[in-house]
Amino acid sequence: MYKLSSKKIAIILAICLVGFLLAVPNFLPKGTKLPSWWKPVSLGLDLQGGSNLLLEVKMDEVLKERMATIEDSVRQVLREHRIRYQNLTATDDSVRVKIENSNARSQAIGYFKKIEDGLTVTVVDNDVVEIKYSEIAYNEIQAKVVAQSIEIVRRRIDELGTKEPTIQRQGTDRIVVQLPGVQNPEEVKQLLGKTAKMSFHMVDERTSVADAKRGKLSSSSRVVSGAEGGQYVIVRKAAVDGAHLVDAGVSFQEGRPVVSFKFDTVGGRKFAEVTKEHVKEHLAIVLDNQVISAPEIQGAIVGGSGVITGNFSSETANELAMLLRSGALPAPLEVLEERTVGAGLGADSIRDGLIASVIGLICVVVFMVAAYGLFGIFTTVTVFINLFLMLGAMSAIGTTLTLPGIAGIILTIGMAVDANVLIFERMREEVKKGRSTRDAADAGFTEAWTTIIDSNLTTLVAALVLFYFGTGPVRGFAVTLAIGIATSMFTSVTVVRVMVAAWIARYKPTKLPI
């Protein structure tokens, strides 16, 4: 034990120095410019203040849209197989169609089941067929929509540069968004309130708006309002879906801002085919069920890119480009709750946490020095080293420190000396058995190692379970606790071992000071 190689000592010292280096930004003045890899620990919402939004995913809109699509599919199936029907309608959660002939109805039911997986087809009110999603299929759709919404929300907030946001699911159809440092979330709410669902439709040149209002409207067309006023009659089916967009940005034409966009390979091919086949016709660009532009196609547009012109300012063009880059929300989001945490409350929390940490540290130091003398002083030094290593590790992995995280640090301070207590008590037992100073010290570290591993491993497993099943504050506590266990095992065993070995090698004591 007391003959540690210079190589091992160098590695231990290097780890400590790296930890100190990574922890340094936490003690520099706020606003100090630092490299991206060398940053302080980010503070959570409860420590630096910010905004908390509770969003609800409007699944009824998703279901309504899907029912409209199923209605079109049902109409197409019935026409293809020449089945007579009446009163085909889509409700908020089902599609109904009346088929009087029993044989034709049985055939239609078989065709309807093949439209999409998860559909249940039943006969209600004698000859009316009802098509809707099963409960299992609906739950799967809901889970997918919420997961997609969380990802899109994350992309949009990241575009704003908001530091360390917390975005997570709550319940079955709600999303919690925490934005540390954001005291006015109006801009965020405005961006999250836009679905940004874009599609490209051909304008129905054969039907005017006036004709459509008089009821002379084909089932394959619909009337849509324009973003700058007026109305358009467009083909119901999209010529190119906005889901194929892969990039968007702002450029300038004749000194005015326009939004440039780029499709993926599939979208670029479709866009080229549509523009080639419909030269001199108008292509409507529809965003959130509004026509933002309907330019005339001058010729085939190849290369998978194009521009959106309109009455844009630089701000609105940038906003639209950002929304298109981040992708369309699969469902509208509604803000159910909004809370703002003041920075003053966070400062109070930090101050109280520091006071609690200092009191806990003083108690630990007094106990260890009183109980183990010089070795207690060695332990005190390693407790401080452990705190620096914790801060360094948290800074390196980008952990967000919350109030429960501070609780985890305070708990770690108390637990950091557990291993040393076990080691020192083992040394006392070996001395009582008559072993020499060096042998007793060596036995203290080697014989107590198994117990130290067992005790810390069980705590680490508890921290991992909390992190896996917990959310928000619980995870913050679990992260700091897990990091604290790892660093305290290193300092309490390895660093203390170096100190004790150096002391024994230098002074060659005949009695241990414990």
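Next protein, fold it too.
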Amino acid sequence: MTESVTINAHIVDLDARRIAPSTVRIVDGRIADIAPTASADGFALPGFVDAHVHVESSMMVPSEFARFAVRHGTVGTVSDPHEIANVLGVDGVRFMRENGARTPFKFCWGAPSCVPATCFETAGATVTPADVHELFALGEVGYLSEVMNYPGVLAGDPDLLAKIAAARKFGKPVDGHAPGLRGDTAARYAAAGITTDHECVTLDEALDKIAAGMKILIREGSAARNFAALEPLLHSHPDRCMFCSDDLHPDALAVGHINRLVSRAIAGGADLFEVLRAACRNPVDHYQLPVGQLRVGDPADFIIVTDLAEFCVRETWIAGQCVFSAGTTRIARVDCLAPNRFATVAPPIEAFRVPARGPFLRVIGARDGQLVTDLVEFPATIKGDHAVADPGRDLLKIAVINRYAPAPPAIGFIRGFGLTRGAIAGSVAHDSHNIVAVGADDASLARAVAALVDAQGGLAIVDGDTCDTLPLEVAGLMSRDGEAIAVGYARLDAAARRLGSTLGAPYMTLSFMALLVIPRLKLSDRGLFDGETFAFTDLFKAP
């Protein structure tokens, strides 16, 4: 039976660079006709696409992520499932794909390229070149996910090159991840087949990578925010830009998505049509996405906004279905299983003690709004024979605990979190997703970690005798109830601020303190790691 729908709106035509009142006729999910009209209400434009996101960071399964994203005019994402792949391997990738496919939302899943991300940490699984080839051969993925091990690419690592070769064999793009690479080194990385980068933190770095042939994903997420530095690219190289969130926690996804970047860019004076190409068209072209562009013959994927300044979304349409209208998501909730891998035990309080071996520490310096950290040489606070946390000097302990098998915790010290008491912990810890915790004392650390072991994953906070836990039952990363997780996350985030944290997103920042492929100093479950030398380093600095 033929289904036909007609809407009247001011059509934003990206090809003709014009806005005109029009009648759009939709037949069986596609745009059948666009004709002039005398009366129109609102502005219709292609739906937004997030060009690089880890859905797992929303702490929602894909079907729940979709229910939130369409509220903000997002109709599709380029989604890297390497978070769940580090826990469950290829089975995790297939879980994401199958769950997302039960909604009309247009997910493009990638084949994880770096699982585990490095050999310096314990992950729950390995994704081999053969796995990647099979995912492409079966048509289950649309691109090779970010190649984070850029030293491996530059050194000609055979496994990495085999994964890149598989993507090229099937005509699929390869995403990059190369923080700080410049000049000839960036060119060598791009020459291996890398087509994008979302890790630029300076304009000069982005320009070097554009010169090397890469496209730049302007990122504004919950932990890493690079829009301000890279906004000039929308004026100088709009055809080489896309927007992405990378990692967006549930509280942020509840209030906005790519629409916020579009509004911000317009307010900054960027050309409307170039901004919308970055938000709607460039990702579709680059990743060969089946997302319509409000043209005759295209799938009817579009949004209607009230204005072209704030981009408040009135309606979102995907494949001719109205999936959001009048403030209500029309995507139904999907039941699903809760696969997980959690096989550790809670360490005793004694395991968090650090015997003093010198007067100076190598301390992780966390930066608000950035994934990169500093290596800070800092005087230790020593009580008896042990180096201890000293909240008065913003010197806290950080611990990473292997969640896949019982093992002693790795312990370090960190500055920048600002906690004056208590501890926070999570099993969302890029990329291997072991347990990571930061605390003002050993007892709080031990209790927060134990709470996560009991819950088999999630987030926790300890304040004196009070412990609050937010379980994440799917792989220790996600929940099947988006509304509950958004409320719960906001509750724990507010509680972290009451402990003294001054970070914009304490739990998001915490989740990146074990990400070894982002310089400079990080902590894995195996010890303190220097991202510049790409090797373990001693916690105590030799005199």
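About the second fold: The longest strand covers residues 4-13.
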